[in-house]
Amino acid sequence: MSAAANARLVQVDALRGFALFGILSVNIWAFADPFYASTTSNPAYASVLDHGVRLLVALLFETKFYLLFSFLFGYSFTLQMAAAERAKAAFVPRMLRRQLALLALGLVHGALLYYGEILSTYALLGLVLLAARNLSAARARRWAIGLVVVACALWMVLGVLQGLGGEWVGTGHGEGQAKLAAFSAGALQTLQFHSREVWATVPALWLLQGPSALAMFLFGYAAGRQQWLASPQAWDPRARRLLLITAPLGLLGALVYALTAAFKPGGGLETFAFGLGQLTAPLLTAAYCLLMLALFNTTAGARLCARLAPLGKMALSNYLMQSMLLGLLFTGYGAGWINQIEPWLLLPMAAAIFILQMWLSAHWLRRHPYGPFEWLLRAATLLAWPNWRRSQ
């Protein structure tokens, strides 16, 4: 592999590592706050700081980073196509095995560790992308835009209908109380909660996140077909102009969504705001991507890129590790700290976990060519055992 191609892959891996931090910063709330994503705010949030932190997370993190991960999934799909072509191997059977293995892994992850997992969604949407593998880049972009617009319009219409039916704001508490009781009780109750809730939550996530994730798959696929990240420096002359468009519009929609998610959750207002936020979230995700690429091309940013790349190279293993660590901290699998940590401490805790993962990833990849679950997924893809350790 040429030095230029290797530099490109390092930046793609670094973007994936950056996305992992955003995903962790959202998922930690699903473990620590029993009322997160329920129909009401946490009644224990009594201060302006509590609500302010919740607002910040909704504004900058929620519904943004899984989109970046989805874009990179679509981009990496084209790299998989190129790898199969170089190996003179049939691409479709490879990807079918890969996606089915990812589906199985995701469902096990959801039943054991985190009922809100997204791997099964990626696995099924990956089959859709596989069926659309002969699309031109231009058509893929048109389909992606159409998918986002239609899906978000439907959410906004649904929100208005909820409101007209008298349900502007949610009022329920049952879901949060059930999680709090299960995570506070012990390992068996935690396992029962995950294994019960995963079958209701995963289909809901397919509905909530599926259209936008598939759209970003298609955007990433189009970008990979045209090798947008082959020379990241090429974006520098246009970055400022693009940021002036994407960042303000993305932040505006995110602010509307964040205000309702933090203060008026669970009803028609949040549904409408979710649709609006999903409409503008790809713009804010694009702004994040442009900012990180520009940063990676500076001296200090190049060091950050080198530290983030190992995380992204073993993103699957790190995603699963995040669920394991959060489970040990907040559920009956370990300390059972659910609803016991001040909201302002959650982001520093996420940062500490992320820094630990940076060190572990770099340490692991000095001795192994793949993360443990990447190795397993690669074995299923190739129907052969890859090297476990690096050759001397």
Automatic annotation (TrEMBL):
Asked if the record carries the keyword Transmembrane, the reply is yes
Q: Provide the alphabetized UniProt keywords.
A: Membrane, Transmembrane, Transmembrane helix
Keyword Nucleotide-binding belongs to the record: no
Pfam families the UniProt entry points to: DUF418 (PF04235)
| Bilayer-spanning residue ranges | 12-32, 52-75, 96-113, 119-136, 143-164, 198-221, 242-263, 283-306, 318-338, 344-365
Q: Which InterPro entries match?
A: Bact_Transport_Assoc, DUF418
DUF418 domain: which residues? 223-382
Family annotation (PANTHER family): INNER MEMBRANE PROTEIN
Q: Any idea what this protein is called?
A: DUF418 domain-containing protein
Q: Which organism is it from?
A: Pseudomonas proteolytica
**What phylogenetic lineage does the species belong to?**
Bacteria, Pseudomonadati, Pseudomonadota, Gammaproteobacteria, Pseudomonadales
